[in-house]
Each structure stands twice: as C-alpha cells, then as structure tokens.
Amino acid sequence: MKNSKFINLLLIVATSLLLVNCTTDPIPGPAGEDGIDGIDGVDGITGTTECASCHNISTSEAVHASYLYSGHAAGGAVGYAGKRGSDKGSCTQCHSNEGYIDYVETGTVQLSVAYENATPISCTGCHNKHSSFDFENDGFDAALRLIDPVTLITDASVIIDFPDRSNNCVLCHQPRRTGPEDNGLGLYEVTSTHWGPHHGPQSTLLEGIQGIEITGGLDYPDKGTAGHRTGTSCTKCHMGETEPNAAKGLHTFKPTRTDCATCHQNGIPDKVDGLAENMATLLAILEAEGILESKINDGHLSVHPVVGTFPILTAEAAWNYLFLYEDASNGIHNPKYAKALIQNSLDALSAD
C-alpha cells in the first residue's frame, strides 16, 4: 500500500514538471525585427455634415433676415381670419400658424377657442421634420410639412403636383370656390363681398384651369403647358438667391431679376403685353354693370364684388377679372391663359 502511494506521488511530480516545461521558457530568445507600419485609413464623413450644410448660423441668419420682408411674416389677416375656427376653417387653415399645422397634420381645424392666440405663419408652420434622411434616394424635402400632391378644395377630381417641393405652396395658394353657374334664368347671385377665388388662384392660373373659358377671339392653351409650369417651379422663381439688401429672394418669396435671367437670357419681360390695359377696360365695364367696385388704398388698387343678382355673362367676366386680380402676378404665371380670359371676356361683353 505504501509503495502504491509512493508511485502515485512520483507520477504527480513528473506530470507537473512536464507541464512547467511545456508552458514556460526560462531563457528568452532574441527580440524580433519591427514590422512595417500600415497605411493610415481615410477619415469617415462626420455624421452631421449633411445636416450642417443647412443647419448653420450663416444660413439661418440669411433665412430669417429675408423672411421679414415676406407677406407671411407681416401676418396678413391673422387678427381677423386667423382666429376663426370651425365656423370659418378655410380662413384659419391659411391665415394662422396654428391653423395651418392642424390642417396639414389632421385635415381639419379645431374649434374657434383653439386659435384665440393665433400667430402669423412662421418657420414651424411650413417646416417640421424630414420624411426621411435618405436624401440621395428620396430627395431633399427641406423638412416641409407637405410635399405630397394636393387635391384642390373646390374639385376633388383635380390633383396638382408641382416640382421642387412646391406643393407646400399649393395648399393655400388655390381658390376657395369655383366660378358662377347659370341659375336657369340666365342670372347669377353674388351673395358676399368676398365672392371670387379669394386671394389664392396662383396655382390654378399656373396650371391653366378654373378660369371661365368664354368663347372669343383667343384660344386657351392646354392645361399644364405654361412655360412657368413646365420649365420652372414656385420655389425656383420665388426662393432664389437673395439680393444685397435681402428684400428679394430666399424667404421673401419675391422673385429677383437674377432668377428670371436664368431662363430669360434674351431679356426679362416686365409685363404681359396689353393685359393691364385690357383689365382696366374690363374693370370699368364691370363697375358700370354694378358687379365690382374699386378704390385706391395706400396707392394700391382694391377691388371687391358687390352683392346682387347679375346676368351670368357679367358674373363670368367679373370672375375672370378677380381671378387675375387676386393672382397678383400681372398674368406672368400663365400669360396666354391670362390674356385669353380677359380679352374674351371683353369681346363677349361688347357683343352682348
């Protein structure tokens, strides 16, 4: 028994010596030569670089400075129309920051009480967040609240889709009602001094729709064929580079001659030939008919409808006048369509 324990002890000692010899080297070998350094890698792009191209102090200062010259910043009728909720939702949705946000996000506006402290359209009205950050594949959406095509308020069968992130403009810059229709007796009743397209026919004039296309000596161009519709966009014309005094371009939404010259390289047209003169003539006739009245406010012509019942042709011509007057581009948005609407209205009234 003692011999067996002694043999086991010898085996344990021998195994330990073998393990020590396998795992240790008491005599270090000579140092090896240094290897060659690897090539430095290329620094990656900072994660916020693309963001910083817009979100920086110089850009924001230029935007804010130019925005102060815009009609949006001035507030418009926010004090009157912007505080009107469910009873006059079509006012609130464009005349206040809060109403516009509600309308874009939910498709409706809240009760009037929600807008007692309504404010003019601001940065947060038009801008919210990017639909995605994959700008290479999805396009740069400028974090606009609305980039999708717009279904017109007056006609659900008409969808307008302007390029270059211009659909955000269309939501408000569209008519609130369509033109007059014969009551069966050859008459039409104007029931409000706000009758007409009401401030917003820019998108429909540009598209070449919703004027009353009275038959006359001038043909109407096909829908969507205007040069400013096919060759440019709201944002390209109205949000170009600012001028030195910041009174035009960028977020003033006022076109500059520099913007125009990118296309009109042989000279920039300042007006549509004959349109202003024809509009003045048409206004005089319509005032004599009693359907429109005008006055000068602070050097600017102000025109409003008169409540009453009128021949349908007179109402149609008045609609066409207001369509161009409310557009306020002097026909530039769609010169051929504008000229045809006014000239043919004159011809029809003269022949009547």
TrEMBL record:
Key word Nucleotide-binding present: no
Keyword Translocase: no
Highest rank taxon of the organism: Bacteria
Domain (Cytochrome c): residue spans on this chain: 244-352
Signal peptide: 1-20
PANTHER family: DISSIMILATORY SULFITE REDUCTASE SIRA
Keywords in alphabetical order: Heme, Iron, Metal-binding, Signal
Name of the protein in question: Cytochrome c domain-containing protein
